[in-house]
Amino acid sequence: MGLFDWWRRRPAPIPEALWQRTLASLPFFATLTVDQQKRLKTLSERFLAEKEFTAAGGLELNDEICVAIAAQGCLPILELGLGAYGDWVGIVVYPDEFVVQREIADADGVVHEFADVLAGEAWEGGPLLVSWRDVQMAGGDYNVVIHEFAHKLDMLNGEVDGIPALHSTLTVDRWESVFFAAYDDFCARVDSGEETIIDPYASEAPEEFFAVLSECFFGIPDVVDAEYPALYALLREYFRQDPLARLRAK
Questions:
Q1: CATH number assigned to the domain with residue range 3-249, chosen from the 4 options 3.40.390.10, 3.40.1280.10, 3.50.50.60, 1.10.540.10
Q2: Which domain of life is it from (predicted)?
């Protein structure tokens, strides 16, 4: 019986050897202080006790998969607390990219069906889906776990619009002023044909800009700060973390 079987019943300690392998898998874990790593471990254990992991597509769940997703997913809420993920339970893990069937109606009301190939997706009022292969590809500006978990943060206050539930130090007016100025500028850069370091997919919609910039905030904070310093400061205040300062301290 794997540890994730026990976690379904009650919190259990993550074995130290597994935890150290998980921390060694991504550079941004190494920038955390010893105290932050300990708190992340405790938060991950609580997360595993509250969430329900399900395998799909023939994948067999194991401790490595569950702990990797928990650790990456809990990093953004290290200072926000587990309540930020309190309105959903399920995590579905596929071995690789997966297909979701879509329907869309055109201007004439004709419904078109198509297959969407995805590495991850967060459903409003439902589970979060990720590809294990893509979880393992995390690094730099790419992190499917942080991306999808950022969508869950965005959903916490209702509409998925790039404006997450804000704590008392932030106002919606301030968020909109800084966030949408950066978003509009980034969209203009992408539309002009510029090859951006930040994934151009961030220009698809405000909610994707928030998710991609959350990935970059933790993975390449120096780029976010250099290109959008006001947005970096806003995200730093929202997440109550400063990945750039941690990076420079190492």
A1: 3.40.390.10
A2: Bacteria
